[in-house]
Here is the input.
Amino acid sequence: MGKNKHRPAQKHQPEPSQERYSRKKDKRKAKVKKEPLIHLSQIPYAFIILVYIFVVTFTPNWMALDTNAPKFMTLSFVNLLSFIYLVTRPDIKGEPGILMRFFDTKIGLVYGAFMVVVLLSFTQAINILESVLQFTKLFSVFTAVFIISVILMRDSRYVKMVVVVGALLLIFDSVSVYYYIGEFINRNISRITDIKSVYSNKNILASAIFVKMPFALYLWMFDKGRLKKIGLFSLFTAMLATWFLATRGFYLGLIFISVVFTIYVLVDYFRDRDKELLWKLGGYMGAFLLSLAIFSIVQSNLYPQIGRHTQPVGTQLATIQRTAQSSNRVDSWFWSVDMIRDNPFLGIGAGNWKINILEYENQQNTGYIYLYKAHNDFLETTVETGIIGGLLYLLIFVFVFWNLLRAYLNRRQKTLRYRHLFLAATGLLFYSFDAFFNFPIDRPEIQMLFALYVAIGIATALKPVQEAEDEKQTATAFELETGKENRPQRTIMARILSGLFIVLMLGSAYVLYLNFESSKLQRVIYQDIMRGQLDREPEMFMKGFPDIPNVSIWGESINSTIARYLLEEERNREVIDLLMDDRDINPFDGRREFFMAMAFNNLGIKDSALIYTEKAYAVKPHYFRNVHLMTTLMQELGRTDEVAPILEAFLAHDNSDVNAYLYTTSFLHRQGDTERAWQHIDTAYQRLSRDERIQQQHTFLQNQLFVLPHQHIFQRAAEYYNNQQYAEALPYLEEFIEKTPFQQTAYRMRAFSHYHLGMHEACIAGINETFELGERDPSLVNLRGVCLRALGDHEAACEDFREAMEAGVQSGIANYRNFCNS
Here is the structure.
């Protein structure tokens, strides 16, 4: 130690000022030696990743019902071509064992196990073809994760490219929102919900922006110079776009993520006392508050209308309650829990949620507009694959978060590996929020973001070459253990895996192509249904639809969809033949049975028609068109006694169907039970009084029940009244009014009788009673004013004269001008 302590200074060691001078002098030289982000040899791999990002995101719908079908098809083609290129590359071909490194990570292992469980769930499926279709979608995403992760295992610098591209796409998406907000302000589009950019709808656009935010956050937290500024700018633009898109779930998500980020930074600061962290937190919160302020100013000063999607943030968040729509969603969650309880091991089969949920939903739903997704991917995945499948899917997220936590606890925040772990975990956290309230698992553009985050998490989980503080220090961030990769058994397994992958990818591409072709025809049918004209030749669909899928996106069997056109052309026997063997496609739907009942009824085969209406009723008891047909057939076939309980049970569930009220009350009146008919129509009148048909039925039954039995009393009163014998008319009017709940003419006659007899106070009291019971007759308002003036209440009289005058009553106009226009 002594020698070291007294060692003389090295003569040639430069002083700090000299070192700075040397660096400045060699600045140009350093620039020349700087390693590029992507080498020429790496361009093919970079191109593959960019194809995944851009092609899947920007694939148009190509006349399909939605963009999911063509985008999943495109993803399957990209997978196939990319994988073939990957396994024929010299660096992979020489070391095929590298493909197995995907399964050396816990994330890759549980992901692969999840796909196996998805296949096993087929054994529980009602509709196997839906399981096949769902598996092809899940497998396409799994394959994308596999391919991207293998590329990232070779070279971690592709992550930086992904981050930069993601941040620039985030700016693009956000700017497109601003453009359409300008169109909304200028009234070129009518609603905020019309904003969708290159996506199918506003919600997917909002999801794409929200789930891309981790790219911007990564640049802001870990990069330097221009890229750091781009990160903060793209973060700000994304926040502002999120406020404008008025999606309450992402409002909550942005607030939640901001709280979590603040806690993370503060904990990190108090542990390391790095003041730069506070600047980063300040920049983030500044972007958050500034974006909210700009949105609030634009919303309050420039928006042309105020509605649910144009309200302030606080007001919109306050509207989150159990409305009819949210109630359906919450109900579907509870029904999903019931299905998990009934099918805990392997679930109900991949893709079969929208089939099995109808067993529950149709006991409540009055129509055929369904929630065909659970709006919670974690819950729906567990329903379809069982508790084991749900846990395996969840563990994909858990292991990524766990790897980040371990690195954090080991104080590895300044390493390249930690940064990538941060990106993967943050990305899946943002994605998880979307997956908890929506269904991004069925949205290819969002699945590509999921694939990128999981692939980064898998590649980063491998043992790093070195814990580098600067990513320029390593071209390949992860160790490739040469001996391990070339073990014979791993090579054999890799080749078997490659062959299996190619077979599955070819099958998936074919299935997803068929799904795309089906989606184009489904769009045609959907547009016909919306315009109410099924005027195309049924053969167009009978010959055009492929075998997969056999149900539409909204859950109706394809054959039932075709049957609509056959019924329109009165080809009833063909409807029956087409649907006879269609039972197992979706046994909980009810449309098959209803269409067969209509066909049998059109053929005059009433007993068979009734059988199928009863089958439809058992599946879907609250669909009125079927209830109407069934009860009509019951009357025709002598089962009239069963009709009233069915109709009243329907009204007890659905008290807003005008046709149901009219049909039920007419039936009860014909059966001689006018009193029960009156009770139902009076209830309808209280709820649906604006409907003219309800008003007419209400008046008719009122006359039948209350007026006609006492008509002789009213006739005597009318005789005296018409002869101006008002004193004689009054007793009969009072008796008639007492026996009837309300008859406007009788009240009017009584009021004028009181007036002509000089009974002004009684006249006023009777008019007030009339107004409390029914409509406010302007002529009676004028009469009340006359009585009030006679009693000396000039001010009150003029108020009535003014009201009568404004309603157009001529005597009211004259009275106001003569007595009040002073």
Summary: The chain has 39 helices and no strands.
